[in-house]
Amino acid sequence: TENTRFALVGNPNSGKTTAFNLLTGSNQYVGNWPGVTVERKSGKYSKDKRLTIQDLPGIYSLSPFTPEENVTRDYLLSDDYDVVINIVDATNIERNLYLTTQLIEIGKPVVIALNMTDLLVKNNIFIDTEKLSYSLGVPVVNISALKNNGIEELIAVTKKALRPEVHLHYDERFEASLTEISAVTQLVNRFELIKIFENDAKILEKISLSDEQANEIAEIVAITEKIFLDDRQSIVVNERYQYLTSLVAMVERKTQGIRLNVS
Ligand code: BGO
After folding, report:
1. ipTM surpassing 0.90, yes or no?
2. What pLDDT was estimated at residue 259?
3. Which of 24, 105, 143, 211 is within CB 3.0–4.6 Å of 150 for a Cys-Cys bond?
4. Which residues share a beta bridge with 48?
5. Are residues 128 and 230 in the same domain?
6. If you measure from the C-alpha of residue 19 to the centroid of ligand 1, how many angstroms do you get, rounded to a whole number?
7. 113-127 pLDDT per residue, tens
8. Mutational pocket test of ligand 1: of 18, 38, 55, the residue with most ligand atoms within 8 Å of the beta carbon
9. 3-state secondary structure of 201
10. Are residues 18 and 110 both part of a single domain?
């Protein structure tokens, strides 16, 4: 996607401001929400300017009483964002997850950033994040905004939460090549990865790879071409048709047609 929009939500004092500052650095814009004197802060992720992050006023629930709660609720019910990052104070999860239950019910993708995990050992708390994630049906990432831990993983997980996991799975040797291109470029979008593999001029212009990245990709492609004994564009065409041949074999059956012409 051209521009991905993260909304940052959490209880007051969950560490949302600390996380927002860490994510955006100096790429912040400050204004006001329309019609109210509530400060509006947004920014771009410092390591990928295509990610915009909208900070939302800290709230305890989506039943609004204050102007801040109203702003946050209206935004969350709008179409102005793609995914919610819910900052949860790990030292006070029951109170914090009260908001989470309501965020999940909105229906947009939610990722829980379990913050303040640096305090858990000292406070004799253990949180089974796998169970938490499984029970709520949303990804959970341990972070410490204060110590700058887990932030890159949070971003990676949040990007993934945007798109369903299902993708068309091609030949393993081709998939391996796409995985390597993903590692070099930090991109996850299948369309972009495949277009890079093909050497599509428009996509390459859009993402502007460094020389080093371009060289690494050239090497990956060269190896794949050698394995397939084919050129990069034909490999993609063939992979698609091989995939479709077995797909169609599964889903299509010939029926005994009624003959229209009896001769
Ligand atoms: C004070 N770990 C720890 N240990 N603390 C954190 C973390 C974390 O991961 N993240 C945030 N904090 P905000 P909201 C403070 O300000 O970002 C701390 O309201 C203090 N201040 O440093 O403001 C963070 O935006 C004096 O702590 O939260 C801040 O969501 C003594 O949590 C507080 C101790 O973070 C709230 C702490 C003068």
Report:
1. yes
2. 67
3. 143
4. 45
5. no
6. 10
7. 999 999 999 999 899
8. 18
9. helix
10. yes
Q: Is the CB of 119 under 6 A from ligand 1?
A: yes
- Confirm whether 257 is domain-assigned: no
CATH number for 100: 3.40.50.300
Q: What pLDDT shows up at residue 74?
A: 92
> What is the rounded radius of gyration, in angstroms, for the C-alpha atoms of the chain?
23
Instruction: For residues 211 and 117, state if they share a domain.
Output: no
Cα of 17 vs centre of ligand 1, distance in Å, is 8
Burial class (CB in 10 A: 0-12, 13-18, 19+), 115: buried
Predicted confidence (pLDDT) at residue 250 exceeds the cutoff of 80: no
- DSSP strand pairing (83-89 vs 28-32): unpaired
- What's the 232 CA to ligand 1 centre distance in angstroms? 51
Does 139 lie in the same domain as 52? yes
Q: Is residue 185 part of a domain?
A: yes
Residue in the block written with tokens 């995939």: 243
Do 19 and 104 have their domain in common? yes
User: Which atom of ligand 1 lies nearest, measured to the CA of 117?
Assistant: 9
Range of the domain at 196: 172-251
Q: Average pLDDT of 47-56?
A: 95
